[in-house]
Amino acid sequence: MSTTTTVSTSAIDRYFKITDRGSSVGREIRGGLATFFALSYIVVLNPLILSGADSAGHTLGIPRVAAATALVAGVLTILMGVWAKHPFALATGLGVNAFVAVTIATHPGVTWPDMMGIVVVAGIVMFILVLTGFRTAVFRAVPEGLKTAIVVGIGLFIALIGLVDAGFVRRLPDAAGTTVPLGLGVDSRLIGWPTLVFVVGLILTIALMVRRVRGAILIGIIGATILANILELVFHIGPSVAPGQKANPAGWSLVVPGLGNVQPIDLSLIGQANPIGAFAHLGPLAAILMAFVILLSIFFDAMGTMVGLAREAGTIDAEGNIPNVDRVLLVDAFGAIAGGGSSISSNQIFVESGAGIGEGARTGLASVVTGVMLLIAMFLTPLINLVPFEAVAPALVVVGFLMFQQVTKIDWADVGISIPAFLTIALMPFTYSIANGLGAGFISYVLVRMFQGRAKEIHPLMWAVAAAFLLFFALGPIEQALGF
Questions:
Q1: Bridge partners of residue 448, in order along the sequence
Q2: pLDDT, tens digit (0-9, with 9 covering 90-100), for 148-160
Q3: In 3D, which of 47, 93, 39 has the Cα closest to residue 266?
């Protein structure tokens, strides 16, 4: 028995290059579990975002979306681990699914199959761009200083997500726009048991990290989850927002800890997308504009996330290259096709993978663990409800700190890099979008280098990307002018 275990472990080690990347099987398993806990909320949240009715009055159905969300995320994450061999998990991207939901709500002639068909079209174009080497070439054309800024910006973005999810930082309702957009708690005071869960989880995680305890992030998530479930059982806190009920600012942000209702598995959404429907109902120009918005979002969101996570995992070489980068990008592009084809919106590399990397994950074995857990979640969705946002949020704040540490590697004396880097770092959290931060950074890089008289240093692809982002930011006026 001992010999068999040694051989098996050695084979796994060689395949995933676990030792070569300074990791261990135990760390990969812990990292995979940490990533799963950090992103499991998407199985609950995605069905809520995509819950609206289309122009025909049809809905996708919450149980069907939940099942397909877990299935597609699990399969893609395992594929990323086994084939691309990186600790990157994939799941439905929050930016694209929100865009899809808003489009359904504001365009009377569009149905769910039509809209998901546009996601499939964008994914196919992305797949072609990867196969032709264009997407990889763009990645390599980005200056090193901007790549580092992407890491730092994503770190701040992750930390802000954690703080907002926990209710520690909240949006301030102000129709007149006279106050700052975010503030501490409610009326500058921290309230509610859920916020206490976050604070305790954060202190526990930091203490364990400082003491160099293995599994600090995962232990922090589990400890906060146990505390959350005890508090819910004792005080019956409930959600912060519930249909037909008054808002409860002291409630849980989304997932109320406890066992949910068992739902039958229904995968009938798979294959319902109609790639040509929107072109027929809205016209070619409007459909192309929608596909372009989705394409830019998945193109640059994933690239920025990939760079940030790979830097944090230490898998980028001295020249700034990521091993198997073409495979990573192909899986990500396929995620858009699979997500659209399953009517759950585009799947992409999830920034919450940083929780697993912070736990020590360095290889694809962690992704296999995360993927398997997602497939299990498809059958056991009630167990996901045991882990509220507030229990995972401390991990995101800590990971944000780890990624932010790379800010010292930016050459702040060179304004041609430091100004674009600053805009990239600032706009990712401030606009709640990785793509917006990238766009501001790329455009400003081209402009500042031009102002410096150093236009010859700009890679030709950076000109093209900056022009694409200019069009992206101008889409609102363009659509308004065309009457869309």
A1: none
A2: 898 899 889 889 9
A3: 47
* Closest CA relative to residue 55, chosen from 125, 92, 18, 109: 109
56/252: higher pLDDT: 252
Residue type, position 324, single letter: N
| 53, 138, 411 from 418: Cα distances, Å | 46, 20, 6
Q: What is the pLDDT of residue 381?
A: 67
pLDDT of residue 82: 97
pLDDT of residue 86: 97
Cα distance between residue 367 and residue 380, in whole Å: 19
pLDDT at 260: 67
Look up residue 188 and give its two tokens: 């500058």
What distance in Å separates the CA atoms of residue 305 and residue 292, rounded to the nearest whole number?
20
- Among 126-135, 315-324, 394-403, the least confident range: 315-324
147 Cβ neighbours under 8 A, 6+ residues apart: 307, 311, 320
Is-contact 160 169, C-beta < 8 A? Answer: yes
Q: What's the pLDDT score for residue 3? A: 47
How is residue 105 written in tokens?
């709500």
With beta carbons less than 8 A apart as the criterion, state whether 60 and 51 touch.
yes
Where residue 7 falls among pLDDT bands split at 50, 70, 90? Answer: very low
Pairwise CA distance, residues 385 & 379, whole Å: 13
Distance CA 196, CA 227 (A): 9
Section 442-449 average pLDDT: 96
d(CA 407, CA 152): 6
